From TrEMBL:
Pfam families from the UniProt entry: PBP_like_2
Keywords carried by this UniProt record: Signal
Gene3D superfamilies linked to this entry: Periplasmic binding protein-like II (3.40.190.10)
Organism: Chryseobacterium takakiae
Source taxonomy: Bacteria, Pseudomonadati, Bacteroidota, Flavobacteriia, Flavobacteriales
Residue ranges occupied by any PBP domain in the UniProt entry: 30-263
Protein origin, superkingdom: Bacteria
Signal is among the record's keywords: yes
Protein name: Phosphate transport system substrate-binding protein
């Protein structure tokens, strides 16, 4: 009799233990740790979204790590990261590789309209720049344009827009978008190429200081000049508007997919707007008058 009771007790404890293990290992979007890889050009909006997510889900811990766009994508393919932020369009070959290695359908989660902008010192007489000037300058030995490095989102996107391979373009390098702005005065004949999110936050003191150091050049395209205001980003009139999106290799609804869903909801899109970028998902505001 005693042996039977002991056996029943052991079975009961085993069932509870198994149940606990299943509960611990089951997917969870509201607790756990995760690292997001992002290019430095859109680190600010990524950090803002991560902070918002952690406030809503205090048991989560999200670390934002900067890495060149192409290298971040490779880390995702090799399962060294669970989520990356991208801006350029992937080639058909890259999409095929993603689907084969990650074993998921390629479904980019778009969340913001950002832009690559061309800047000159505040006292520069230059007032605008044309697409032709950009295309010619990127193939000139003068290396007129300054980028934040190779494999960067800014270089990749400009190369894609002018239908050239990055390796075939000629340019100067100053590592870091912020450093380009701060050092541009030393090179009055050069044009800096940075991500808008570097200083897009409207009420941030550091952003204000950086904006005061340079002048953003409107881009002339098909006879018209386009600036980076909200309307031109929303309608994608500005030629170098780019859509930021998340890619993940997470097949279940864990923290990565939870974060993506949050970023694309109204709350996440409000954070995008506070960052001075154009939300990708527009939500109608209805006011009832009585």
């Amino acid at each position: 009799m005693k042996n039977s009771i002991k056996l029943i007790m052991l079975l009961f404890i085993s069932i509870i233990a198994i149940g606990c293990k299943k509960e611990e290992s089951s997917p969870s979007y509201n607790k756990g740790e995760m690292t997001i890889l992002t290019d430095e050009s859109f680190k600010s909006v990524t950090e803002a979204l991560a902070e918002g997510y952690m406030i809503n889900y205090p048991e989560t811990k999200i670390k934002v790590v900067t890495k060149k766009e192409d290298l971040g994508f490779l880390d995702l393919l090799h399962d060294k990261a669970r989520i990356v932020v991208m801006s350029r369009d992937l080639s058909p070959e890259e999409i095929k590789t993603y689907e084969e290695q990650v074993e998921l359908k390629f479904l980019p989660s778009r969340f913001a309209a950002d832009a690559v902008v061309f800047v000159v010192p505040k006292d520069s007489p230059k007032e605008s720049i044309s697409m032709e000037e950009i295309e010619q300058g990127m193939q000139s030995d003068d290396k007129k344009f300054i980028f934040d490095g190779t494999n960067s989102s800014n270089l990749n996107f400009v190369a894609q827009k002018i239908k050239k391979e990055p390796k075939n373009l000629k340019f100067s390098v100053i590592p870091g978008n912020k450093n380009i702005i701060e050092e541009l005065n030393k090179y009055p004949d050069k044009i800096g190429v940075i991500g808008l999110n570097t200083f897009s936050r409207p009420y941030d003191k550091e952003s204000e200081q950086l904006r005061d150091m340079v002048k953003i050049l409107p881009v002339e395209y098909k006879g018209k000049q386009y600036s980076t205001d909200f309307e031109n980003l929303r309608k994608m009139n500005y030629p170098f508007t780019r859509i930021l999106y998340f890619l993940t290799n997470e097949g279940n609804f864990n923290i990565a997919n939870g974060f993506i869903r949050y970023s694309c909801t109204q709350l996440g899109q409000m954070i995008v707007q506070k960052e001075g970028l154009q939300p990708y998902n527009l939500y109608r505001r209805e006011v009832q008058m009585r």
